[in-house]
Every structure is written in C-alpha cells, then in structure tokens.
Amino acid sequence: MVLRSVPATAWKIMATIMSWLHMLRNLALRATAFQSSTLGGAVARKAVDGNRNSIWDGGSCSRTDRDRNPWWRVDLGKAYKVTRVIITNRGDCYAERINGAQIRIGNSLENNGNNNELAEAVVSIPLGETKTFNFKPINGRYVNIVIPGRNEFLTLCEVESWRTQASRHLSQGMQRNSGGGNRAQRAR
Ligand SMILES: [Ca+2]
C-alpha cells in the first residue's frame, strides 16, 4: 500500500519542483535580441548568452554604435508578467555609459519597443557589477534597454529577465534559508 502511494506523491513533488524551476527560469536566456546598431561584432545576443563576463575581450558583451537614443531589445517569445531585470555592466572601462538608461517592458514594437512601460531607470551601475531591478509586474513580451536623450554607446554584458512575484519570494526564501534561518520563523 505504501509502495503504491509513493509514485503519486513523488510525482506531485516533482511537478511542484518543476513549476518552481520554471518560474525561476531566466526568460531572456538565449532569446532573440536586437539593437539599434552593432559595433565591432558585439551583436545583441551576447547580452543573453548566459555569461556575465564583463571584460570586453571576453567577447560576451553587446554594443551599439554611438547612436542617438541607442536601444537593445530581447523578445521573450510571449508575454510574461515580468518583475525583475538584472543587468551586468561593462567591467574594464566606460561604466558611466549606462547612466540614465531605462528598462521598458510591453507588447508594442512602436518606436522599436522603446515606448513601452517604464519599469525602472538605471541611475548607474559600477564598473563590471551586476545590478538587480525589482518592480511591480509588467505584462510584456519585449524587454528594452534604451538610453534616451543623448548620443551614446550602449554596452550590455548580460541582461536577465524574471517573472512573477512567486519567483521573487521563492528566491528570497532560498537566500534567507541558505543564510541560516527564516526571518518569519525566528519572529514567532
Ligand atoms: Ca554575456
């Protein structure tokens, strides 16, 4: 009787874990990416290759030419409720080029997607650092990074995109647990 009940229980646990893993997936990973122009072979997909290497010679950063309002866009394939974008800035020089960039998310390709809802503004990201931007869920298929209002090179060494509040709560829970305890449990 016990043996008969094990497979159903195991399947249920596996399905739950698979559901969590799906929510924890980086939606942008190896998705189709575009940018306003490409300089030096630094194509848009290098920002979604799963490699945060921020050193230019590592060959894992995208870069536009010095465009007016340069932009980069990833197509997630379908609309998700995106709640988090993680950006890795260039690490060997020119950290300030990212200053003033905007993260825009939505389903429109009007103005190359740069008119979609503003999720967050990037004030700055230190040299070679990876910065996480959390925001309220925004429904969208396209995630854009755009630098409005000036002529600039847009360099992105990695852009990651995540969905749902659940993934955030789960990952925060995992971080808390790995750090030695659950705050809620301690408060009780
Ligand atoms: Ca990369």
CATH class annotation: Mainly Beta
| Unreliably modeled segments | 165-188
CATH topology: Jelly Rolls
What does the radius of gyration come to? 19 Å
Count of discrete structural domains: 1
Describe this structure in words.
The structure is a single chain. With 188 residues, the chain is α+β, with helices and mostly antiparallel strands. The protein has a single domain, classed as Jelly Rolls (Sandwich). It has helices at 2-23, 165-178, 183-187; strands spanning 32-35, 62-63, 67-68, 71-88, 101-106, 117-122, 130-146, 151-152, 155-156, 158-163. The protein is globular, with a radius of gyration of 19 Å. Residues 165-188 have low confidence and may be disordered. Bound molecules: calcium ion. Calcium ion binds next to loops.
Task: Give the topology.
Layout: H1 2-23, E1 32-35, E2 62-63, E3 67-68, E4 71-88, E5 101-106, E6 117-122, E7 130-146, E8 151-152, E9 155-156, E10 158-163, H2 165-178, H3 183-187
Antiparallel strand pairs: 1-4, 2-9, 3-8, 4-7, 4-10, 5-6, 5-7
The structure holds calcium ion (CA).
Descriptive terms for the model:
disordered C terminus; globular; 188 residues; 3 helices; 6-stranded antiparallel β-sheet; Jelly Rolls; two-stranded antiparallel ribbon
Entry summary:
With 188 residues, the chain is an alpha+beta fold. The protein has helices at 2-23, 165-178, 183-187, and strands spanning 32-35, 62-63, 67-68, 71-88, 101-106, 117-122, 130-146, 151-152, 155-156, 158-163. Bound molecules: calcium ion.
